[in-house]
Amino acid sequence: MFEEASAPAPRNVIGDWVLRGGIGFFFLSAGAEKFTPEWVNLFQEIGAGQWFRYFTGVVEIIGGILVLIPWTVTVGLSLLACTMASAALILVFVIGRPADSIFSGGIFVALAFFWWNRRNRDA
């Protein structure tokens, strides 16, 4: 009787796949975009070199793929959340444009909320 009251609600599998698919597609495309010349100026402002742009692109692509694989979702979400938190901090403290960090900070919050929402639900 009491076990049923504290049991987590079952996860909506289709909704979970749709959200994970959206997150995966977003980060696969964002990571691939890092290999285009549009991002050169921003990463020059960061001052770490263009290798950091390629590294960021690879991390976003790997994170996007990990989110799509059911048993690696937590690792993928963690990797992507750390990437977005780092992006927000770099925009605020390195580049000095705190208003630009709202987007990456919002994505970080969304990823953390998605993880928090699915952590106690049945697979």
Entry keywords:
6 helices, mainly alpha, single chain
- Radius of gyration computed on alpha carbons: 17 Å
Shape verdict: elongated
**Unreliable stretches:** none
Could you state the order of secondary-structure elements as H and E?
Answer: HHHHHH
**Count of discrete domains:** 1
Approximately how much beta-strand content do the residues carry?
under 5%
How confident is the prediction overall: mean pLDDT? Answer: 91
> Which bin fits the share of residues in helices?
over 70%
Topology of this protein?
Layout lengths: L1 H5 L6 H21 L6 H7 L3 H19 L4 H22 L6 H18 L5
Helix pairs in contact: 2-4, 4-5, 5-6
Explained architecture:
With 123 residues, the chain is an all-alpha fold. It has one domain (13-118). Helices cover 75% and strands 0% of the residues. Helix 4 (50-68) runs antiparallel to helix 5 (73-94) and helix 5 (73-94) packs antiparallel against helix 6. The two termini are 23 Å apart.
Quick recap of the structure?
The chain has 123 residues and is mainly alpha-helical.
